[in-house]
C-alpha cells in the first residue's frame, strides 16, 4: 500500500493546489495519484465511501485515514516535514498564511465557476469590483496564489 493515495484529476485546481503544497513540503514522491472522475451533477459513489462530499482532492493514508478539503490536506502535509512551514505555528504569521490561503481558495473557486460556465450574477458583480480594485494590496497575495494555481492549469 502506498504511503498516501491521492484521488486526483488534471482538471482540478484544488488538486493542483495540494500537489504544489506536496512539492513545497518535499512529499510528492510519497503520494500515489489515482485518476478519479467527479462532477457536481453525478456523485462518484465509490469516492463517497471515503469522502461523503464526492470531491477532489481526497487523500487516503496508509492506515486508512481519509483527509479531505484542500486546506486540511495542506495542513497535514505541513506536519510531515522539517523545513520552513507553509503555516507557521505562531501568530500573527499563522493568521496571515491562513488568510492568504482563504483568499486564494476563494479566487480559485470563482475561477472554477467561470470555467464551468455556472457564473452567477453575483459573481459578475464581484468580478466588476475586483477589476476596479486590482491594486488593493490585500488582494495581491491571494491573486499570486490563484494565478500560480491557474498558471499550472493552463501550462
Ligand atoms: N473546498 C474544497 C473544494 C474542492 C472542490 O470543489 N473540488 C472540485 C474539483 S476542483 C470537485 O470535487 N467538484 C465536484 C463536486 O462539487 O461535486 C477544497 O478546497 O478541497
Overall mean pLDDT score? 85
Rounded to an integer, what's the Rg over CA atoms? 16 Å
What is the element string, with H for helices and E for strands?
EHEHEEHHHH
The CATH topology label of the largest domain is Glutaredoxin
Strands across the major sheet, in which order? 2-1-3-4
Number of beta strands: 4
How many discrete structural domains? 2
In CATH, the homologous superfamily of the largest domain goes by the name: Glutaredoxin
Task: Give unreliable regions as ranges.
Answer: 150-155
Q: What is the C-level CATH assignment of the largest domain?
A: Alpha Beta
**Percent of residues in beta strands?**
5-15%
> Main sheet?
4 strands, mixed
Coarse shape: flat
Distance between the termini: 32 Å
The CATH level-2 architecture of the largest domain is identified as: 3-Layer(aba) Sandwich
SS-based class = alpha+beta
Helix content: 40-55%
Q: Number of DSSP helices?
A: 6
Query: Which ions, cofactors or small ligands are bound in this entry?
Result: glutathione
What does this protein look like?
With 155 residues, the protein is of the alpha+beta class. The protein has two domains: 4-78, Glutaredoxin; 93-150, no CATH class. It is 51% helix and 11% strand. It contains six helices and four strands. It has helices spanning 13-24, 45-48, 70-78, 93-116, 121-132, 137-154, and strands spanning 4-8, 31-35, 58-61, 66-68. Strands 2-1-3-4 form a four-stranded mixed beta sheet, covered by helices on one side. Helix 1 (13-24) links the parallel strand 1 (4-8) and strand 2. The chain starts with a strand and ends with a helix. Residues 150-155 have low confidence and may be disordered. Bound molecules: glutathione (GSH).
Amino acid at each position: 500500500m502506498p504511503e498516501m493515495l491521492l484521488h486526483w484529476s488534471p482538471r482540478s485546481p484544488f488538486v493542483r493546489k495540494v500537489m504544489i503544497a506536496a512539492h513545497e513540503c518535499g512529499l510528492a514522491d510519497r503520494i500515489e495519484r489515482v485518476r478519479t472522475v467527479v462532477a457536481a451533477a453525478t456523485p462518484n459513489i465509490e469516492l463517497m465511501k471515503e469522502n461523503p462530499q464526492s470531491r477532489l482532492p481526497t487523500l487516503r493514508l496508509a492506515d486508512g485515514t481519509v483527509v479531505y478539503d484542500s486546506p486540511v490536506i495542506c495542513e497535514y502535509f505541513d506536519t510531515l516535514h522539517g523545513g520552513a512551514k507553509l503555516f507557521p505555528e505562531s501568530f500573527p504569521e499563522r493568521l496571515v498564511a491562513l488568510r492568504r490561503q482563504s483568499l486564494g481558495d476563494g479566487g480559485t473557486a470563482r475561477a472554477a465557476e467561470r470555467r464551468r460556465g455556472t457564473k452567477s450574477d453575483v459573481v459578475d458583480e464581484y468580478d466588476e469590483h475586483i477589476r476596479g480594485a486590482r491594486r488593493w494590496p490585500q488582494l495581491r497575495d491571494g491573486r499570486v496564489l490563484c494565478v500560480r494555481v491557474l498558471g499550472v492549469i493552463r501550462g
